[in-house]
Amino acid sequence: MLTLNRIVLCQLDDLPVGLGRAFEVEGKPIAVFRTRGGRVFATDGFCPHKNGPLADGMLTGDSVVCPYHNFRFDATTGECDQPGICSIATYPVEVTDSGIVVTL
Amino acid sequence: MIQPNTIRDTPITRKRLVVIGNGMAGARFIEDLIALDPSHAFDVSIFGDEPYGNYNRILLSNVLNGSQDAKEIFLNPLAWYADNNVTFHAGKKVTRIDREAKVTYADGVEEPYDTLVFATGSRPFVPPIAGTSLHGVFVFRTLDDCRNIAEYAKDCKKAVVIGGGLLGLEAAKGLMTHNVNVTVVEMGPWLMGVQLDADGGKVLQQTIEKLGITAITSASTKEFVGDETNRVKGVKFADGSIVECDMVVVSAGIRPNKELAGECGLTCDRAILVDDSLQTNDPNIYGVGECVQHRGMVYGLVAPIWEQTKTLALRLTGVNANAQYTGSKLATKLKVMGVELASMGRISDVQPTDEVVTFAEPARQVYWKAIVREGKVSACCMLGDLGPADDLVEFFMTEKPAPERRLELFFGAGTKTKGAEISLADLPDAKQICDCNGVCKGTIVKAIQAGKTSVPMVGKATRAGTGCGSCKKMIAGLIEAVAGAVKADPSESWYVTAVPLDKPTLVAECKKRGLKSVSAVLRELATHEDEKSKNGLASMLKSIWGTEYIDERDARYVNDRVHANIQRDGTFSVIPRVYGGVTTADDLIKIGEVAKKYSVPMVKFTGGQRIDLLGIKKEDLPGVWADLGMPSGYAYTKALRTVKTCVGTEFCRYGTNDSTGLGIALEKRFQGFEFPAKVKMGVSGCPRNCSESTVKDVGIVATEGGEWEILVGGAAGAHVRRTDILCRVNTRDEAMQVIGRFLIYYRDNAKWIERTYDFVPRIGIENLRKIIVEDSLGIVASLDAEVEKTMAAYVDPWLERDQPVYAGQFAEPRKVSLPVVVV
Fold first, then answer.
1. CB-based burial, B201-215: b 16+ in 10 Å, e otherwise
2. How many domains are contained in chain B?
3. pLDDT average, residue stretch B618-624
4. Subunit contact A23:B813, Cβ cutoff 8 A
5. How far lies B250's CA from each of B110, B124, B174, B608, in Å?
């Protein structure tokens, strides 16, 4: 049985507009992004291709682009735009009064 | 784990078809099968070793040489398999077949079959010699090989390719584009032994040596020699000689993957034996592609393999249950390193009674040879000029009698002697244009008439041109003949891909609408959003608006956000500004102390005469900058990078002018200037050119007569280009002024990522000289003003160390512990 944890990661203002920020939840790397359109989403911290730090990537629409080799991952599904590269995990995010809550 | 098959609506009647191998044969066979099997009589499963959908292996060399992106060569994306109800086991290797129970086993998947098709292809042959497991020794077969070779080549200067066949030469060409010196080693007495005879091989060798590749023939490789870190450092030959290198690509032929078939009891010789039905000795098991041997032949080219897949699909679907494959005649046209080559039949097979017709034109590296046996063309090779190749192919394929006067084979009344002059309109509709995919002129013309008026559109509709691509020119010609003109790709002129406007229009539009931020431009003018366009727009808007520019940090690449260059392990490199490459003892001590304090893993001199501190953590950047107390060297961004200098008159016995002085002055004046691509400069104090000014974006060379020669548009990376001479000037101030004008003109007119070595030839050096030196457009005063304005706007970005611009700019990953449960 899988245990799900809901965790307050930070406040909305800790996330720069249009960019991402890196977290380590009990050692697990997570990247959290805040799009210019106001959406907040969370993914695995590293690109499955060559371990690029996704939080350092750029956002295009609702995708994050790995800073190493421009592999692009969908914010909702985690799918990569290039065939042959694995998807990344995405995690549900809620923006609440007590902060950004991620379910892992 | 057993993966479920697709849902079966008629489970009893459907046959289970399993294909082993998702390469060019396996996947093509499924495509053929689906096309012929509208009633879906089969449940199809396919196993592929590689974790990808299938791709066009012929084009791997293009991926290696950078002319195509990896994603462009995929034939069927993963979704295609699902859309066609094909169960695709990606990255699963079949390890066992139970022929009795009719089940295949692979890495935890088992798949029962009624009919099994082997399409296991082949693998690179690696000679059994010492050192093949050293770092830096590669084979060249898969997409991953390509990625690995390209990655490794970045740090290499000299590569040896073992094997002078088609693939070996393709690999050599690919390596050259990575700025690596290449030596090709062939065991046989000449290159491309399969396609060429000795004379042809020599002609080819001369041609490629002109391109800068060394070729060694009749060389037997004995071992790969490694250094103490197990990296390859040389290739040793049977005669004891050694060629030094820092990487090796082995391309010494291929071997069919027949082991699995052999283990389950199928009859194999050099490959898996199949008959004219493509059946093995088990009536439920078939084979296609490079893994099979048919009538003594093992084919390694796509055309025969695709004949096989078509035949097998016809048989299995029952569309033509009697379809037979009776072997292929091989006629291919290739382009190797820009050398055109046609080959048909076996050119080395010459009988005493054969007539050999040859024509050679050494100055143009043209070589034609045809073998006439019993009055018919039995083999032919052509090199350098394929004028009569189509006629020869016809003689060869149809086995029609050769002309009485044999010279008419090459110079017949109707023979066109230049490829480009072939009258496409005169070709019959049945004439095959794309040999890889067997697409005839008629099919292509129909597609064009249906509105497919670009080469990619025709390719999508008919597959023509999607194999080796050598017929694309003819397809373009057909489009021109049928539709009037090939539709030009308008995106060529756009500044960035997201906004369909060329740069002058885009600039005018931004000014007119008052668009001062990237998000505003994207909102009002863009068709979509991508990261490169955002970077490009940010650069352009900054130069248009100066201090009015609304700087949105999310439009910048990470390097430009943290003012350092990201490395493969997520750390950054820090290169402080060292004006003109001239430093002081105090600065060196300071750099050394910083390197010690932050335990910098590597301290390296760069090619641009700077000191690079590598392996700095993002959170340490502000501290490193503060401790250095030196301005940013801009080594991470599209801006003025370095001005490399020689010592000039200050110390050098040969120097004729003060090159360090000018270099320092230039760097102080133009530091922080951002451009569509990086700009490197060099100043040489005499024509000996120790600072390599002739391959810089802007080079300045002192002449013996005391003048400065201003050079522009050089390159010494993947491309090497010698600079063009813009002008000569008398004084340092004049040099600074002309260079400033050139830089601003380049900044305002180049496309995003367009280096000066593309920009200068595009505009033309004569034209540039008129604009910048003679002021033909009357703009130099405004260019001068723009220099002043840009200089005034310069702020050292490393000062952001004291006050980060956005949340988390220089922060390490924030650690959060469990459990912090929220209900």
1. bbbbbebbeeeebbb
2. 6
3. 96
4. yes
5. 35, 8, 14, 34
Between CA B276 and CA B122 the distance in angstroms is 21
CA–CA distance, B363 with B762 (Å, rounded to integer): 31
Residues recorded for chain B:
823
Can you tell me the ipTM of this complex? 0.95
Residue B238's identity, in one-letter code, is A
Here the CATH number for the domain that contains residue B723 is 3.30.413.10
The CATH code for residues A16-93 is 2.102.10.10
CATH of the domain at B165: 3.50.50.60
B802 inside domain: no
Q: Is B635 inside a domain boundary?
A: no
Would you say A51 and A58 are in contact if contact means Cβ atoms under 8 Å apart? no
Sheet architecture: strand order including B232-237: B221-226, B232-237, B242-244
Determine contact, residues B698/B683, Cβ cutoff 8 Å: no
- Residues 6+ away with beta carbon under 8 Å from B679: B639, B640, B641, B673, B697, B698, B743, B746, B756
Are B301 and B341 within one domain? Answer: no
**Angle at alpha carbon of residue B164, lines to B160 and B165, rounded to 5°:** 135
B568 contact residues in A (CB cutoff 8 A):
50, 68
- B135 and B232 in a single domain? The answer is yes
Convert the pLDDT of each residue in B769-805 to its tens digit: 999 999 999 999 999 999 999 999 899 999 999 899 9
Query: Among B376, B403, B422, which residue terminates a domain?
Result: B422
Of the candidates B203, B228, B252, which is a domain's last residue?
B252
Share of chain B above pLDDT 90, in %: 55
Cβ of B821 within 8 Å of Cβ of A82? The answer is no
Euclidean distance between CA atoms B17 and B14, whole angstroms = 9
Letter for the amino acid at B757? Answer: Y
Q: Measured between CA atoms, how close is A41 to chain B, in angstroms?
A: 16
Is the model's pLDDT at B486 over the cut of 70? no
pLDDT in tens, B566-581: 999 999 999 999 999 9
pLDDT for residue B24: 86
Residue range of the domain that includes B371: 331-422
Contacts of B81 in chain A (CB under 8 A): none
Question: Does residue B799 form part of some domain?
Answer: no
